[in-house]
Amino acid sequence: MKLLFIRHGDPDYEHDSLTPKGWREAELLADRITRLEVRDFYCSPLGRARDTAGVTLKRLRREAVVLDWLREFPGWILDPDTGEKRIAWDLMPSYWTGRRKLYDKDEWYRDPLMQTGDVEQVYRGVTAGIDRVLAKYGYRRSGAFYRTERGNTDTVVFFCHLGAQLAILSHLLGIAAPVLWQGFFVAPASVTTLVTEERRKGEAYFRCKALGDTSHLYRADELPSDSGFFGEVWKG
Predict the structure, then answer these.
(1) Which residues have CB under 8 Å from 163's CB, separation 6+?
(2) How far apart are CA 76 and CA 87, in angstroms?
(3) Would you call 180 exposed, middle or buried from its count of C-beta atoms within 10 A (0-12, 13-18, 19+)?
(4) How many domains does one find in the chain?
(5) CATH number of the domain to which 143 belongs
(6) How far apart are CA 178 and CA 113, in angstroms?
(7) Rounded Cα gap, residues 95 and 67, in angstroms
(8) What phi and psi, each to the nearest 5 degrees, are found at residue 19?
(9) Model pLDDT for residues 145-191, shown as the tens digit of each residue
(10) Residue 78: which H helix or E strand, with range?
(11) For a surface tag, which of 16, 125, 143, 159 has the fewest beta carbons within 10 Å of its beta carbon?
């Protein structure tokens, strides 16, 4: 089975839609996805994801199932410097790398920082959501892998967001979410591909064949957006 996780195109956050660049990216993305045999489409309820998906769906005359837990990861923490609510990632390296529990795939959301907000509750909602979807296709969670009596070769597409996508990968691949949030980037309109590997009958694990692939943009001379990537902002 193949899972494609697609981040929305270059975002217009003010209007929860896409910038002109984002709309171009969505068209190029549709050129790629419409060539595939896709069994089902799923989408975040947020406008920027639905607009991105809409270009592909309109061409195919298809619809997507909208799932609330695919929205951008809303879990919050209290900022250790200001005491105000904020998203659970984009922490300074000197701070988060010193918290060893944040590297633990089973314990990261129990770190005292994450416990200042609702991160554990939201993460459990996301993991339960993806497991419900996978169960529809015959893959049921068993510890840290999946059991299946009727494995398949279906392709399923999810239109979502950077933080949400990496939270899902945390669950499927057994990697602490902060490690993915802090150390990996998926560009707007990029495609991440996971494929099941069933080396023993009835036991399946997901392997990542591509993370944040933007080859469809480069082929059209459309440089990927860096939206969501802070880069070096310190000026000395």
Answers:
(1) 72, 73, 87, 89, 181
(2) 5
(3) buried
(4) 1
(5) 3.40.50.1240
(6) 12
(7) 34
(8) -75, 170
(9) 999 998 789 999 999 999 999 999 999 999 999 999 999 999 999 99
(10) strand 76-78
(11) 143
